[in-house]
Amino acid sequence: MAQLESIAFQNAFTGSHRENSTFSITCSHWLILSRTDLTSLKSLTFHSFCQENCSNFDTLVLDSLKRDVVLTITEDALPNIIHFSGDATKLVDAVAINSKSLEYVQHVDASAPILSVPCYTRRLYVDEGCCKTQNIATTLFSPCILLRFISIASNSLQESQSLILSSMPQLVRVVIGDRCFCPSTMVVGSFTVRDCPRLVSITVGENSFTRVTTTQLIRLKSFASLDMAGSSFQSCLVFTVSQCEVLSLLLFPKESLPIVTVVEIVGRHV
User: Fold this and answer.
1) How far apart (Å, rounded) are the C-alpha atoms in residues 106 and 87?
2) pLDDT digits 0-9 by tens, 38-95
3) Which helix (H) or strand (E) holds 28?
4) What is the pLDDT of residue 75?
5) Strand 163-166 with 121-126, pairing
6) 106-118 residue pLDDT tens
């Protein structure tokens, strides 16, 4: 099927919905199609004309396709999809809006040249050693208002100097591994997390955020835990925690914040 360029579904697969049913298009060797079978595929379209389309499926998997493949899902198509995963698809019809229960899980492996995060991503996993030399935009994640979980494995984004997570209403947990955000040049960075009402915990590993001079945790209504290694934030001068209403324990590990000059703990504003 190397010449296949387009696949379209119109009001198909509308029998009784079965849980855990999956629609899968893949080029991986371990499934039916080989890696070269769909090299010409350019578009995949799910249309709906006043009827449900492909309502049988609750999982859509698109994996190892060309990165310029365009997926179009119109309203009422794939109405029961709750899991969507894949590494090579651009969504052009605001899938997250059409399918409100949709969960897009983005997995970025170490071979990725740059890290980009679609606005409809729900969970983000960045593999170890990913995008070491990329200096990401400080607010890269903030526009992703559906993002609930961020996991950045060790030795990733090492040349990135700052990170701001702001106004992310669904964010619950952030995990940063060892030796992340530790640029080799003498730069000034910052780490700011603010106005994330559901955020519960932040974990930061060894020797991460080494050039950060300002750390701020502000207006985090559900925030309960900051787990940071003693060797992280070694250049921090100002450390602020403000209006984190349920935070009951703030533990600074041994040898943490060795040159800090200001630690500001601010309660709820009246």
Assistant:
1) 7
2) 667 777 777 765 566 666 677 777 666 666 677 676 666 766 766 666 655 555 544 5
3) none
4) 62
5) unpaired
6) 888 888 888 988 8
Q: Which residue has the tokens 């997250």?
A: 96
CA dihedral 21, 116, 149, 64 (to 10 degrees): 30
Give the N- to C-terminal CA distance of the chain in Å, as an integer. 66
Cβ-proximal residues to 202 (8 Å cutoff; 6+ apart), any chain: 173, 174, 176, 193, 217, 223, 225, 226, 227, 228
Distance CA 98, CA 95 (A): 5
Residue (of 84, 67, 99, 71) closest to 7 by Cα position: 71
What are the backbone angles phi and psi of residue 171, rounded to the nearest 5°?
-65, 130
Cα–Cα distance for residue pair 95/146, rounded to 1 Å: 12
- Distance of alpha carbon 104 from alpha carbon 124, whole angstroms: 9
pLDDT digits (tens, 9 = 90+) for 221-259: 999 999 999 999 999 999 999 999 999 888 899 999 999
CA distance 79 to 68: 25
Smallest Cα–Cα separation from 23: which of 41, 42, 46? 46
Residue 216: how many other CB atoms lie within 10 Å: 16
Nearest to 23 by CA among 84, 69, 66: 84
User: Rounded to an integer, what distance in angstroms lies between the CA atom of residue 207 and that of residue 71?
Assistant: 40
Query: Token pair of 81, please?
Result: 């999809």
- Under 8 Å CB-to-CB from 197, ≥6 apart: which residues? 169, 219, 220, 221, 222
What number is the average pLDDT over the span 147-155? 95
Which residue from 183, 188, 178, 193 is spatially nearest to 231, judged by alpha carbons?
Answer: 178
> Which tokens go with 31?
């499934």
